[in-house]
Amino acid sequence: MPLCQTYETYMKDQEIPIYREYFIEDVREIKLAPWKGRGCNAAFLQLAGQEGVVEVRVQEIEPGKTLTPMKMGVDEAIYVAKGQGVGAVSGTKDGVKKTFEWGPHSLFLIPANTWYQLSNMSGTEPARLVHYNYLPIALTATPDLDFFLNHPDENGGSRVLDSIGGEFYSQAKAVEEASGKIRGAGSIDYYWLGNFFPDLKAWDKLSPYRGRGAGGRVIFVKFPTAEMDAHMSVFPSRTYKKGHRHGPGVVIVIPSGEGYSLMWPEGGEKLVVPWREGSIFVPPNRWFHQHFNLGGEPARYLAFHAPPQLMINAEKLEDAQRDQFEYPDEDPSIRERFEGELANRGLTSLMPEGAYQDRSFEWEY
Ligand SMILES: [Fe+2]
What we know:
- This protein has 7 helices and 24 strands.
- It has helices at 5-13, 135-141, 145-149, 156-164, 320-323, 332-344, 353-357; strands at residues 18-19, 23-24, 33-35, 40-45, 55-61, 70-71, 76-82, 85-90, 98-102, 107-110, 115-120, 127-133, 173-176, 190-193, 196-197, 207-208, 217-222, 229-235, 251-256, 258-264, 271-276, 280-281, 288-293, 299-304.
- Strands 2, 13, 14, 16, 17, 18, 19, 22 and 24 form a 9-stranded mixed β-sheet that branches. Strands 1, 3, 4, 5, 7, 10, 12 and 15 form an 8-stranded mixed β-sheet that branches. The chain has a 4-stranded antiparallel β-sheet with strand order 6-11-8-9.
- A hairpin with a 6-residue loop joins strand 17 and strand 18 (229-235).
- It starts with a helix and ends in an 8-residue tail after the last helix.
- Fe (ii) ion binds at residues 244, 246, 250, 283, 289.
């Protein structure tokens, strides 16, 4: 993937690690380094499928510490890999703050141009957060770091906060939509609208996700003031989802579960990505990928969505012929590997035989 030079230079200038792998096995364990002027340890992730497209920063807040206030000219979604604390968001640097408490597996949005400050409430444990935004794309359009990191307009954040009123970080609400109208959702009937999702590991308000198989369920997340969105899929023990592909920049984080994913370019070799809580990976541009649950519990994965222009007809069912394959059409080695992995653990597959026989097989919900 061609890179954004302004963003590349900016990253290198921060003198913190830049991880350029296919996957991170546990983001809670990777090495960070002090980020000058920011009061925390941090690293950038530029995994193979996100390079030059989306930013991921991992930031750690020491026990009892509050970070330097920060403002960016792009929306930023934050997932809490570990720890608990308080967020304070305001329209201007010294303006009235909207505060909320976050904990392990929280997901929240910091709107573009608002000031925000994060504090770790624990006196003993560090907190680790995963920040996701579209900065590299934005810098390609406007290669001016100050425009995004140091914008003189002090009212941009206030406008965003005013537009949504006092309930900015209250509990998300379910919104019904005609089936098929939600970006990337296939046959989902509703999404959740809000800036704060307190605990994705415990979230149980899920909708059947019929299009992707395995009897999986999903929450589609929309943030009221952002074009960025996300979803979390939950799928049963000892099953696997249908293989599919799309564009770059979809960053997957695991809140809970145990398994692996396969990722491969058309006709190419399959890369195995083992995952568990804290893993992060990104399917490279147009590579097929497929998720397998080897654990005894349902597995959960949160997917931060790339800019819609890059999804390249991604997850829509009308593209299923080209961008998604049904179980009867998959390479037989896919099923063999899954059953072999389970056998190594003394387990058997719970995939119904009918799914391998009938292309229109439907799980019961
Ligand atoms: Fe995908």
